[in-house]
């Protein structure tokens, strides 16, 4: 079975990707520094603890496992945090990715699947985005990811490295079989924070900003189920292994939901009240990030199966009540 090097395989999206890779007949080799990931989330292949800021550790994993491709999830990914600690974000995300990309080329591996983000687009007046939309990030997280996209283009020109770049919209939900799920420490994302507030594990949810230029004043995001998202990665990997060349794909559903709509939907799914307060805007937040996925559907044959808001919240809620990695 072909080995796939999965950086960040102990994290939320990476662990779901490892499950999908194993189901598709690949062996996912997780490389993770466990700063935000969990050893107990690595269930579907070998684990190597290592840091992308240490080139020798990356070279060693290539030497030992000889992966046919890389899936690069490892990153710091919180918008608000990136505005407070831009240096940390640039160093970790860009320098770490550059080390990995150089090591990939040095090992003679030519296939690279990269987790990018809708945050590379920045704030654009009420448009539904597509892959050709201009990229003007308004936070350090998005800027760091855009820089890595640029590095990949330069390495293709110089060394023939082929990449599939996925720009994610908001990832939510959890493995319906409960083997892996979303578990951040500290948690900053809307849906898991809200579920914590609903069952009293933390204080009320604060809505960050109610004066945005949207129908109800709160930010609008396009939520995608993590299982659908990782299915796209397996299709992207196969695309590269079939030698179809570098390509960028947005992974969204084309439908946006405001923070208030997510709150209301969570109340319905859990049948419980959502304790909440209204607060200031969070620096770095875009008003609206919504994308179609026409390209992923037509070219990759991607068919999201679980990406309705009630399904995502229900899957997140089930995981929230039954699973974590701290046991
Ligand atoms: N949000 C919020 N309160 C929170 C966390 C998030 O109102 O405690 C809002 C946030 O401002 C954004 C949306 O929920 O509009 C999604 O934020 P999240 O951090 O989940 O993902 P992001 O869009 O930053 O990747």
UniProtKB/TrEMBL annotation:
<keyword id="KW-0520">NAD</keyword>
<keyword id="KW-0119">Carbohydrate metabolism</keyword>
<comment type="subunit">
    <text>Homodimer.</text>
</comment>
<dbReference type="InterPro" id="IPR005886">
    <property type="entry name" value="UDP_G4E"/>
</dbReference>
<feature type="domain" description="NAD-dependent epimerase/dehydratase">
    <location>
        <begin position="4"/>
        <end position="252"/>
    </location>
</feature>
<dbReference type="InterPro" id="IPR036291">
    <property type="entry name" value="NAD(P)-bd_dom_sf"/>
</dbReference>
<protein>
    <recommendedName>
        <fullName>UDP-glucose 4-epimerase</fullName>
        <ecNumber>5.1.3.2</ecNumber>
    </recommendedName>
</protein>
<dbReference type="Pfam" id="PF01370">
    <property type="entry name" value="Epimerase"/>
</dbReference>
<comment type="pathway">
    <text>Carbohydrate metabolism; galactose metabolism.</text>
</comment>
<dbReference type="InterPro" id="IPR001509">
    <property type="entry name" value="Epimerase_deHydtase"/>
</dbReference>
<comment type="similarity">
    <text>Belongs to the NAD(P)-dependent epimerase/dehydratase family.</text>
</comment>
<keyword id="KW-0413">Isomerase</keyword>
